[in-house]
Write a structure and sequence with these properties.
This protein has helices at 6-23, 48-55, 69-80, 127-132, and strands at residues 28-35, 39-46, 84-88, 91-92, 97-102, 108-115, 120-126, 137-144, 149-156, 161-166. By secondary structure, it is α+β, with helices and mostly antiparallel strands.
């Protein structure tokens, strides 16, 4: 068996680092929306450089860390409420709850909770992409907790919209039959 030259190891290491860097591309975001039986949960993950651009336009904060994130959390929560403008059957759907955390990879993860949209058209407008500007984009994937996909789109600052159709919720499951009480003897 021939020995593998050192440059092959260097090339493999460079490719591995490039793949990891792509996962934290500051121009990309990932959004997953899950329609539950009683609510809509929207999870948005973005690189910290992108999230900082949303809350610190003057670039006073150069990087996020577990130490400085708690002091900035309220700013991220306020910005999180404005990430998306949602309309369900042409009626605004405001967020009921916004939480945000710094992930282990030092990305920023938002969780937005909305009332469950009525059956019909659900429109997502990624307002944050308009704020960020040219070159920013991401993926929005919408489905339900049973694994049905309603739609997905690669969005960008030029095209920040996705519209899906939310079906009627399934009827509640019938309760299991109960056994008759034991006979007394």
């Amino acid at each position: 068996m021939k020995p593998v030259p050192c440059f092959a190891f260097a090339l493999a290491a460079a490719l591995a680092l490039a793949s990891a860097a792509r996962a934290h591309d500051p121009f990309e975001s990932w959004t997953e929306a899950i329609v539950q039986s009683d609510r809509l949960e929207v999870f948005v993950t973005m690189a910290q450089a992108t999230a900082l651009k949303l809350v610190d336009a003057e670039a006073r904060v150069t990087a996020l860390s577990p130490e400085n994130f708690p002091a900035l959390r309220d700013r991220f929560v306020r910005e999180g409420a404005a990430l998306f403008i949602l309309t369900a059957s042409r009626k605004p759907l405001p967020p009921r709850e916004v939480t945000v955390e710094l992930t282990e990879e030092l990305d920023v993860a938002f969780k937005l909770v909305y009332a469950r949209p009525a059956p019909g058209r659900l429109h997502f407008h990624a307002a944050f992409l308009k704020k960020l500007g040219e070159g920013y984009g991401g993926i929005v994937d919408v489905g339900d907790n049973a694994g049905h996909q309603f739609g997905w789109e690669q969005i960008s600052w030029e095209n920040p919209n996705l519209e899906v159709v939310v079906p009627s919720p399934p009827p509640p499951a019938a309760p299991p039959p109960t056994a008759p009480p034991p006979k007394k003897t």
